[in-house]
């Protein structure tokens, strides 16, 4: 028991110490702003591609998938404006504007890569072209995944009726589309976390070694977003302080919290790996 406490203390000290001394707070700020700047180009690119491929309901489902896991106080104002932007008809799929949207969306992936390289204490050795192509590939994969989920949600009522006709026991569970949206959104987040931790940073990591940091990230995101939402409900003066900019300021602060937790997840994985390697050398 004492040995486990000592090990936990060393791991946490290593993770928090490296986060603090290696500009973790500044990287969280960079990641938050870059993510916000990449989010809208990504949704515009994905929605345009979805409309081109015939997935007309993509805008609504994509907004749900992105914002359903955000606290309502943060998500509602932004989701409303995003939906207004995404429902504007576009026929410029292959024009420079939409291609630039894909490029700017990939900047968010690059910010994730830089943050994780620092967290895992590795030096990037891959070429800039390889990294940018990989980032754009991530954007395309995310778009394809959102499109597939969009189509699935559109056909969900029909699939539910077919299931009810053949399986009586499933009826109590088929009417909770909102619940399924939460489940799907959570699955997308978990899969995305594993993908970015495994492929984006330089070097190689075992898949199982990513689990502690991802569990920490998910738990801390839930706690942090709940606490921030409670703060907004009871103590916040953002609206009186920032007036019309309140929604943007709230989103930036929320993404800053999320980004810091995300980087700490990588720091935790790196600290655990360093501890286990040190133990193996001593043993």
UniProtKB/TrEMBL annotation:
Keyword list, A-Z: Cell membrane, Membrane, Transmembrane, Transmembrane helix
Recorded topology in the membrane: Multi-pass membrane protein
GO cellular component terms listed in the entry, alphabetical order: plasma membrane
Pfam families from the UniProt entry: Virul_fac_BrkB
Main location: membrane
Transmembrane residue ranges: 36-59, 93-112, 133-159, 179-200, 207-230, 242-264
UniProt subcellular location: Cell membrane
Protein name: Putative membrane protein
């Amino acid at each position: 028991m004492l040995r486990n406490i000592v090990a936990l203390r060393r791991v946490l000290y290593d993770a928090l110490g490296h986060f603090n001394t290696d500009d973790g707070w500044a990287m969280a700020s960079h990641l938050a702003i870059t993510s916000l700047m990449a989010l809208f180009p990504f949704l515009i690119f994905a929605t345009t591609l979805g409309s081109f491929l015939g997935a007309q309901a993509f805008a609504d489902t994509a907004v749900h998938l992105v914002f359903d896991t955000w606290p309502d106080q943060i998500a509602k104002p932004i989701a409303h404006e995003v939906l207004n932007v995404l429902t504007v008809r576009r026929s410029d799929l292959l024009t420079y504007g939409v291609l630039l949207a894909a490029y700017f969306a990939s900047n968010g992936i690059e910010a994730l890569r830089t943050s994780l390289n620092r967290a895992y204490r590795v030096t990037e050795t891959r070429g800039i072209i390889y990294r940018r192509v990989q980032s754009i590939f991530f954007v395309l994969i995310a778009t394809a995944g959102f499109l597939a989920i969009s189509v699935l949600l559109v056909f969900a009522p029909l699939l539910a009726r077919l299931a009810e006709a053949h399986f009586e026991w499933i009826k109590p569970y088929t009417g909770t589309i909102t619940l399924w949206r939460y489940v799907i959104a959570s699955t997308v987040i978990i899969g995305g976390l594993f993908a970015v931790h495994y492929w984006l940073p330089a070097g190689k990591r075992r898949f199982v070694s990513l689990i502690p940091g991802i569990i920490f990230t998910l738990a801390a995101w839930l706690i942090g977003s709940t606490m921030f939402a409670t703060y907004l409900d009871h103590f916040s003066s953002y609206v009186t302080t920032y007036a019309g900019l309140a929604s943007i300021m709230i989103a930036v602060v929320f993404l800053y919290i999320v980004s810091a937790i995300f980087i700490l997840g990588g720091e935790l994985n790196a600290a655990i790996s360093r501890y286990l390697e040190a133990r193996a050398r001593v043993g």
